[in-house]
Amino acid sequence: MVRKKPCVLACVTSQFECDRIIKTAEHIANEEECELRVLSVLQPTSDYSEIGGEIEYLYKVARESGADMTVLFHDNAPYACADFVNKNNVQRIVTGMHDGGNESFLVMFNRFTPMVSITMVAKDNTAYSMDVCKAAVR
């Protein structure tokens, strides 16, 4: 089922400091009158006990921001995120900073979904946005 209302998606890892990503995404969603969603893609493993506290905290931050939080278990985070984006009418993702590698999450995600705008949030809460430019066809 594809969602009709546009969404802003906060993409988080299992770290407490990802709350800044959710809060920035909430601000953007409010400005753009979009729905806010939160997604975390975790590597499949047999023991999640070490990250339970972090995921619970981020879930709490998501709820306080008026968002639901989805946790997916997948070996390929960029692919899983792109699939989620396509099924949920996501117009923009909000993530942490790009690590610079050619095989990083953001580079791979952008290959799968080049028409989705991206906002990256630095540890000091500075946000950097890359908007999709849609040229007029003549």
Describe the SSE topology.
Blueprint: E1 7-12, H1 19-32, E2 35-42, H2 52-64, E3 68-73, H3 77-87, E4 90-95, H4 105-112, E5 117-121, E6 127-130
Parallel strand pairs: 1-2, 1-4, 2-3, 4-5
Antiparallel strand pairs: 5-6
Helix pairs in contact: 3-4
Provide the structure class.
Answer: alpha/beta
What is the total tally of β strands?
6
In which order are the strands of the major sheet placed?
A: 3-2-1-4-5-6
Q: Count of helical segments?
A: 4
User: What about the largest sheet?
Assistant: 6 strands, mixed
Oligomer: single chain
Contiguous uncertain segments of 5+ residues: none
Radius of gyration: 15 Å
Summarize the structure in short.
With 138 residues, the chain is α/β, with parallel strands linked by helices.
Description:
The chain has 138 residues and is α/β, with parallel strands linked by helices. It has four helices and six strands, in the order E-H-E-H-E-H-E-H-E-E. The chain has a six-stranded mixed β-sheet with strand order 3-2-1-4-5-6, sandwiched between helices.
